[in-house]
Amino acid sequence: MHEYPMCYEPTALRPAYPWGMPDSITDAAHTKSLATSFITDSITPQRHSRNIWQNPQNTVDIFLEDARSRRRIIAKKVTTGFRFIRGGKTIGGLDSGITTLVSHQALRASRRPQVMRHYFAASDVPCLPADTYHVSQFTVAQRNLPTGDMPVVVRPASPRVRSGATTTLVQRENFTDAWETAAQACHALKPLERFIEIQEYRQGLQLRIYVVGEEAVAALVRIPFHVVGDGLLTIRELVENELQEWRKCNYLSRREPTLPDVITRLGSIPDDVPLPGEVRLESQVSDFGRGEGISIDVTDQLDAELAELAVDTMWAFPGLAATAVDILAPSLENSSDAVVVGIDPTADLGEFLYPTFGRSRRVTLRILDHMIATARR
Question: Of 211, 217, 235, 258, which shows the fewest CB atoms inside 10 Å?
C-alpha cells in the first residue's frame, strides 16, 4: 500500500512523568491516579449534592436567550447563522455555534492537532509531544514508538471522530490492536484525512478553561465515568446505580453510555465487588474530544498561573478572542508541569452552564459583553 507523507517530521516522545509513573501501565482502570485522588477528595464528599438540569439548551439557544433577554441584543437570522445587533449597530454574530470572535485561521488550525501544535511551539506554549501518521503508515509508526516501557495514547487525529481512542495505555505488545481500532474509527473520513495521533501519556487533571478576551471566565474539571465501591455491590450494580443518577439529569442523560459499554471500558469483571472507597475509572487516557463523563466547576479554585496559561494559549492563534482551552495539570493549585492538550473554539457552552457539581457559569454573557465592548471602540 502506498504510504502517504507524514504531516510533519516525527520527534522523539519525551519519556517524562513529572507527576509519577502509574503503578500499572497495563490496566489504567485500576491505576491510582490524580483523577482518583480528586474523586476521593472533591467529588465523593458531595456526591449527594449533584445538580439536576431538567431543560438544558444547546449552545445556539443559550446565545439567543441571553442576547434577547439579558443584553437587549437583536438576533437577526441570516441563512445558517445570526447577526447580533445592538443600538442599530452590528456587534458580531453566530453561525453553527461559532462566533465572530473566532477567526477562520484559528478555526482551521484547531481542527488539525498537528497544525495546532505548531502554533503552540511558535508561542512557547507547553504541550504534550505527539506524532501524526496516515493510517497506511503502521510500519513507520511502530518503528518510531518510544523505547522502553513508556506508554502512549493512540487515537484518531481528526476531532470529527468521536471514537477509536484507546481506553488503556498502549505499549508495543498491544500497539497493533490500538492502531487497528483507531484506523477503523477513521473509516468514514476521506482517505487523505485518515490520520492517527500517537501521544505521550501523562497523568493529570483534565481542565477545560474558557477564555474570553484576556480573561479565563470559567473552568471545569472533567472526570470520566466512574464508580466508587462500598464493599457490598458488584460492578454491574454500581454502574446501574450511577446510570440511574445520570437519568435524573437531562443534560447527562443525553450522553448516557450503555451498561455493557461502561463495564467494558472499566475493564472490570461485572460480578467483582470493589472495596469500600475503591474508585474504578472508565479511562485514565485524557480524551477531551469525547466530552463524556461528569464535570465540576472549579473557576474560583483555579490557580492564577493556570488561568494565564489558558489566555496565552488562546493568543497563540491570530484572530481568536474566545475559546475553550484543554489543559492537563497536576492540581488546581499547581501550574508547574501543566501542559496544553488543545483548543476548542466550537466547545459546547452548555458544559459550563450545566456542570454536574458546582456553580453554573453563563459563558455566553461574557462573550456577548466582549462583542459589545469591542463594538464601542
Answer: 258
CB neighbour list of residue 156: distance below 8 Å, 6 or more residues apart: 163, 164, 165, 182, 185, 186, 195, 196, 197
Give the number of other CB atoms < 10 A from CB of residue 270. 14
More confident residue, 111 or 126: 126
pTM of the complete model: 0.87
Residue 362: band (very low, low, confident or very high) from pLDDT cuts 50, 70, 90? very high
What contacts 21, CB < 8 A, 6 or more positions away? none
Q: Length of the chain in residues, anyone?
A: 377
- Do 339 and 310 contact (CB within 8 A), yes or no? no
Are residues 81 and 170 both part of a single domain?
no
| Claim to verify: residue 218 and residue 294 sit in the same structural domain | yes
Burial of 139 (0-12, 13-18, 19+ CB in 10 A): exposed
Q: Report the half-sphere exposure of 204 (CA within 13 A, side-chain side).
A: 28
CATH of the domain at 172: 3.30.1490.20
Cell match 469591542: residue?
374
**How many whole angstroms from its chain centre is CA 89?**
36
Best CA proximity match to 34, nearest among 50, 45, 20, 24: 20
Domain count, the chain: 3
Do 300 and 372 lie in one domain? The reply is: yes
The residue segments making up the domain with residue 343 are 52-128+203-224+283-377
Would you call 117 helix, strand, or coil by DSSP? Answer: helix
DSSP letter for 46, please. G
Dihedral angle computed from the Cα positions of residues 84, 88, 91 and 96, in that order, rounded to the nearest 10 degrees: 20
